[in-house]
Design brief:
Structural class: alpha+beta
Strand order of the largest sheet: 2-1-7-6-5-4-3
Distance between the termini: 70 Å
Radius of gyration: 19 Å
Helix content: 40-55%
Number of helices: 8
Oligomer: single chain
CATH superfamily: FAS1 domain
CATH architecture: Roll
CATH class: Mainly Beta
Number of strands: 7
CATH topology: FAS1 domain
Largest sheet: 7 strands, mixed
Length: 175
Amino acid sequence: MKSPFITYITVICFLTIFSLSAQTSSLVQTTEASGKHSMLIAAVKATDIDAILEHSGPFTVFAPSDAAFKRFSPAKLERLMNSNDKSKLKSLLSYHIVAGTLTASRILKAMCRGNGKASFTTIQGKKLEAHMDGYDIVLTDPLGNTARITHADLNRSNGAGIVHEIDSVIVPSQM
């Protein structure tokens, strides 16, 4: 006969394992579930970056919304998506990804330490600079392209990284 304490510990362990497994969906899965990033998800899957996001990391993804992609040149996006050579599309996407988990509070702390500015290196190797404009965190690339974080800390609890929705597609210099 088991003691009530052993039974209690067994139940707690089981519930903890179950809740952790329920939370460990990938960045791609949780971003896809939002319903606001279908163009980004299609591009991520077309370039196989989804495999990197699922098996490496954690990563911070500055995710352009579908509305942001609609403001991006539709003809250019179609050429990138339908090209046999996905290197330019992969370059575009990797310009939106930073290694590590950068929550909004970590970005703000970095800006406080940097006199109002913070710099982060994308997995493409280019720098994005963050600064405040009113209440918004704004990202600026070396060419002066900007994007505002419109929704921060999406899918924060999954451990695979974090997603911040942005209002513009940031374009690397090669495009």
